[in-house]
Amino acid sequence: MKTLWAERYAQRTQRIQSSAIRELLKLTEQPDVISFAGGLPAPDVFPVKEFQEACQRVLAEQGPQALQYSTTEGYRPLREMIARHTARYGIVVGPENILITSGSQQALDLIGKVFINPGDRVLVEKPTYLGALQAWNAYQAEYVTVPLDDDGMQTDKLEAALRVGPKFLYVLPNFHNPAGVTLSLERRKKLIELADHYGVPIIEDDPYGQLRYEGDHLPALVVLDNEFQRHNGAPYSGNVIYLSTFSKTLAPGLRLGWIIAHHDVISKLVQAKQGADLHTSTFTQMVAYEVARGGFLDKHVRFIRTVYRERRDAMLHALERYFPTEVRWTRPQGGLFLWVILPEHLDAAEVLKEAIQEKVAFVPGGPFHPDGSGRNTMRLNFSYMSPEKIEEGIKRLGRVLERVLSSRYQCAA
Amino acid sequence: MKTLWAERYAQRTQRIQSSAIRELLKLTEQPDVISFAGGLPAPDVFPVKEFQEACQRVLAEQGPQALQYSTTEGYRPLREMIARHTARYGIVVGPENILITSGSQQALDLIGKVFINPGDRVLVEKPTYLGALQAWNAYQAEYVTVPLDDDGMQTDKLEAALRVGPKFLYVLPNFHNPAGVTLSLERRKKLIELADHYGVPIIEDDPYGQLRYEGDHLPALVVLDNEFQRHNGAPYSGNVIYLSTFSKTLAPGLRLGWIIAHHDVISKLVQAKQGADLHTSTFTQMVAYEVARGGFLDKHVRFIRTVYRERRDAMLHALERYFPTEVRWTRPQGGLFLWVILPEHLDAAEVLKEAIQEKVAFVPGGPFHPDGSGRNTMRLNFSYMSPEKIEEGIKRLGRVLERVLSSRYQCAA
After folding, report:
1. pTM of the model as a whole
2. CB hemisphere CA count around B144 (13 angstroms)
């Protein structure tokens, strides 16, 4: 007889659903659609030549090692390089504090696996990164939310959420995905103080921190916590788990991210990773190290910044020019995304259907809200399309919004 | 204050422990130790030159695509190639039945995530693959076991285990890890019949199937189930989930495996993988495809077979020559491992301590038994060391066993 597979799935996967929006977005993969939907780096910034050279060097000099099994913790020279790089931003840790992951998404998954019991609360921003919700829904997390504004998480609303007793607090302080906003220094300090007071550890997700196009670098929460703790002069308090990735600075197709954490936490995460995928590809780790070392990564990040800054500016100018006055948006100082807030009565998922007719796409903001709110919001990516396409796409989207707004107002009248 | 991390771990990770044996085995990484402990392919069989050429071609012709995000299901030409390859063994499926995973270990993890509720029983062989237990312990599986003998799972003991109501049945029919044995054709048929009778789906793990050194290829369970079901002439029943990998035929450092399953199951696994690591490295998938295609993989597998057959023979000869008569072992027709059974009063973990003194290592068999039995067993790998080292290592190990056996007999007297 045939197996009734649906009757055999675990309870946790009941919440893992195929999304209607994902199906819609498949329509946007046609070449004539201008898509602001993905979170994709511009393919024209990938350092293809450097990858070619690195592959040759790695295979010629260390071929058998690069193709063999390796340790779960990750390639040691790569971890040492990450430790050196982060030290420049005041995050002083050793390789024993670093675990290489198969992209930042795996970091989120492993954290869920190690920490979340079914029903545990996780404190997140509203909106928050969809991939974190996807990872933690599988561990049956519940959420308590703190809303964002232009200065990031509204820390005056944080204390009430902390008193719920969350397992941890998850925050994207720099150029937030999806909202594009940055947590102010004052609020960073407030957040550290309150989290310490309630004994709630912090997961700081920082995939875009290096992609700042204006303004001054703000210290990471992991740095501010160390300053706050002043614990016996040791450089790293271990209270903040810090995540980052090479996906936005080198290439996402490698799937290389990392976790910085207390050594005890790294040990537990290593055990979890052993069961999850044994280790991240030895070859991609060695190639990434070969490409990044010797100062190339810094140089390359400077180049990416100039490309993305131009695209952000193109989008902001186009928004001013083509979007209806009833619509608001954020002005990111870096990263890949900005956030659009439509009048409350509009549903961005409905707008997307209209937009696809006009060959332009975005991601509706609803799924970034664990409480089901935010239906009138949308995320726009500005890294993937050229400035010309951005201008044209925003023009089309403005037209769609004008039309939708006028028809809705008519209905309401 | 400092975070008390240990108080924050989830219940499921209480069972994820750092193993004493893992610590012991770290001692065996010194170059003068002859190690039969790992499951490592011989580095001298890696096709380094072909990888160099493939990297160049992929980056020169499709660089931006290879470095970009890609679909969770996996690189389509690779899935199509896998479908063509498996069709030759009678497994007739399309790319929609195939999910590329970050090594076979991730396949085991995703299956655990999608199917196992805390406390669910999983039917496994005794001994069984340690990586499967590691993956599923994290989902709080319980186990019901069926012992092996030289013809694989003892199917006359299978019915009682099936009546316990396991979520699924996990079996390694070819050149079992750790036991080295192969499930006979008669037992394969019996297993299919019984699993069908009790409605229990099968996970068939086949990482070594192509590495047969003698005897005839036996049909996979997935093929036999299709024959048994004869369901409307369709080629794939969907009752058996089949796992395999490029780790033993191309290179484990790539982390590339795959799952063949019913399309509904693939959809669910894709959703789970999205939250786990988004997708497997685009670059390694494209490079592996480039290396494998055009008949190279078949040619290369023939070469690997000749190398490993010689090593297996070297180990079997050395065992005959140097091991005490009280010790028994399996005679694998393929794969990477053989299995040693010591007299019942001996503890292989204790033997390992002595062996490390003599600069030779193996993995004690206890951890491969979910019920805590098997302390008098050990796994020997024959793929990694040269025939000369195998001879020398088995000689040393024979000496250790002679000594341990004689001292134990004295104690018992």
Report:
1. 0.96
2. 18
